[in-house]
Design goal:
Helix content is 45%, strand content 16%. By secondary structure, it is of the alpha/beta class. The strands form four sheets. Strands 2-5-8-1-9 form a five-stranded parallel sheet. 39% of the residues are buried.
Length: 328
């Protein structure tokens, strides 16, 4: 227990900047505290974040504001149907002065990359991000370039029912640690949004966190205590999506085509640690796992045609899993 106590003290000492960051973001963003917290979890756990919601819910503004409050290189890529992979990663160009080919690095070479409306570009462009998101490197021609550290992709997408959208490949969706569903603001928040957006003096934010602080926090997040029983709980949750029969969820057996991958187990553990860090704790509880569970799992469960016919959603399945799996 002495180790946990020392971890608590260490986390309490180094996690204070998150409150300053949230307060700074709050100067521009009204409400949407859930979205802001999940973006911070992605930054702290070194995981990529996908935000889904109808247009006009401040997804892009929130990502940009959070990145403005952290000192680091920011890059925004607007995904469109005519975008090419080279527009994202870069290309090889011939220099007449040098008489040789050189690499021209694309906008993906930044600490924080906003892939705006990522599902409005065709699959070949979306897949250009795959190597960058997983290996933290990009190959241009025959040369491999390392991406800066930290490197986080924060993508926004409109619901696939919207006009002009392409569904993301499963392999790419699985590389996002979190998929956040962005909802409409409350009535009180919307009144505040109107007041703030029509003010003569627009609100701005200043950097309150350095990339060095963020990298140090990431090291501490990975050291946060994860008890064996909580680890077993994570494994049970993930395996329930793969083999529902063995975990007392027979009614779901015909609804899940593919369950969550091992990447989901890793993401649950890391996101749970980051969730504990934001609450200034040096240990993970089952409630941390429950809190981040829907955001980690909803995009990793592939449903059967039967589930779609019955209008069963991945959200409902995740909720049922957490209801059924015994909490330690």
């Amino acid at each position: 227990m002495q180790d946990v106590r020392s971890l608590n003290e260490l986390v309490a000492k180094h996690s204070g900047f998150t409150d300053s960051l949230v307060a700074e973001v709050g100067k521009v963003i009204v409400g949407q505290s859930y979205m802001v917290e999940r973006i911070l979890i992605g930054l702290l756990a070194a995981g990529h974040v996908l935000l889904e919601g109808v247009p006009g819910l401040a997804k892009t503004l929130t990502v940009r504001t959070v990145c403005d409050a952290v000192s680091g290189k920011f890059s925004r890529i607007q995904f469109t149907p005519d975008l090419l992979p080279a527009d994202v990663t870069g290309t090889v160009i011939y220099s007449q002065q040098k008489g040789e080919f050189t690499s021209k690095l694309g906008p993906v070479f930044a600490n924080f990359v906003l892939a705006d409306e990522v599902n409005r570009a065709p699959a070949k462009v979306q897949s250009a991000l795959l190597e960058a998101m997983q290996e933290r490197q990009v190959t241009i021609g025959d040369t491999t370039h390392a991406l800066p550290d930290p490197f986080v992709v924060m993508a926004t997408q409109n619901p696939i029912e919207q006009e002009g959208t392409y569904p993301l490949p499963e392999a790419q969706v699985d590389r996002f640690m979190l998929m956040i569903r962005v909802l409409y603001p409350t009535e009180d928040d919307e009144r505040a949004i109107i007041d703030r957006s029509t003010s003569a003096v627009p609100a701005t934010v200043s950097p309150v966190v350095t990339t060095e602080q963020l990298l140090e926090a990431r090291t501490i997040v990975r050291d946060i205590y994860l008890d064996q029983r909580v680890r077993d709980y994570i494994v049970s949750v993930v395996h329930s999506t793969r083999d529902p029969d063995r975990h007392g969820l027979k009614e779901m057996a015909g609804l899940i085509h593919y369950g969550a991958s091992p990447r989901a187990s890793i993401a649950l553990a890391l996101a749970g640690k980051a969730h504990a860090f934001l609450r200034h704790r040096g240990y993970v509880t089952p409630e941390d796992i429950k809190a981040v569970g829907p955001d980690v799992l909803r995009h990793r469960i592939i449903l059967t045609y039967e589930a779609e016919a019955e209008e069963v959603t991945a959200e409902q399945i995740v909720r049922r899993v957490f209801e059924a799996v015994e909490v330690p």
